[in-house]
From TrEMBL:
<protein>
    <submittedName>
        <fullName>TRAP-type transport system substrate-binding protein</fullName>
    </submittedName>
</protein>
<dbReference type="InterPro" id="IPR011852">
    <property type="entry name" value="TRAP_TAXI"/>
</dbReference>
<dbReference type="Pfam" id="PF16868">
    <property type="entry name" value="NMT1_3"/>
</dbReference>
């Protein structure tokens, strides 16, 4: 009976994140633990939950299935302004608490498919654009559009981070988009497990063309990391 009374006085909050192989999930779980510890005296308990990513996170908050979420800035702005994926449905109640980290767009491709070492090499490959309705899928579509590619020019797969690396390791996939904070666990796992793949670069022209569609990206240089030793540049 005491336990039921304590639960009745508690407020349970959920933080929507993304798939477990990226940065959102461990960060969301970590934040939830910190909040639960520091807000315990107020009867607030927070948990992190995996999801398909930013778009689903916004819907989860709209349905009150999550009260907090980690979002790609691209999708957060789209939702607030009611454009693209949220055309005509602006979510003006959306509020930002803080920027957490630069979300680096890791585009990886098997070495035998690499020609120029840039995003142009994705053409005519089997490529994971991320889970359907995820922020990864939406940002990848815009980036591909910026280099004159659509899903018609590739064989698209809709995999999470861990599944993308597993499929590449097994020879079932040429590459994929793995946007995450550095170091991304899926990328370090890819190299640590011996997958012969390369991180693709973005030329200045490609970056300009991508930002012409959605002005959300800036150049980021990944620092030297031991687990990326196979990648010289």
């Amino acid at each position: 009976m005491i336990g039921k009374k304590e639960n009745a006085n508690k407020q349970f909050l959920s933080v929507a994140t993304a798939s477990t192989g990226g940065t959102y999930y461990p960060m969301g779980v970590g934040l939830a633990n910190v909040w639960s510890t520091h807000l315990k005296d107020r009867g607030i308990q927070v948990t992190g939950q995996s999801s398909a990513g930013s778009i689903e996170n916004i819907y989860l908050m709209q349905q009150n299935e999550a009260q907090l979420s980690i979002l790609q800035s691209l999708l957060a702005v789209e939702a607030y302004e009611g454009v693209r994926n949220f055309e005509g449905k602006p979510e003006k109640n959306l509020r930002s608490i803080s920027m957490l980290w630069p979300n680096v767009e890791h585009f990886v491709l098997m070495n035998d498919k690499v020609k120029t070492g840039t995003l142009d090499d994705i053409r005519a490959t089997s490529f994971s654009v991320g889970p359907q309705a995820s922020g990864t899928e939406q940002s990848t579509i815009i980036i591909l559009k910026g280099v004159n590619l659509t899903k018609k020019e590739i064989t698209p797969e809709y995999l999470g981070y861990g599944d993308t690396v597993s499929a590449m390791r097994d020879g079932r996939l040429d590459g994929g988009a793995l946007p995450a904070g550095v170091p991304a666990s899926a990328v370090t796992d890819m190299y640590a497990s011996g997958v012969n793949a390369k991180l693709l670069e973005v030329t200045d022209k490609q970056l300009d063309d991508i930002n012409h569609i959605a002005n959300s990206w800036f150049r980021f240089e990944i620092p030297a990391i031991p687990t990326l030793a196979k990648q010289k540049k």
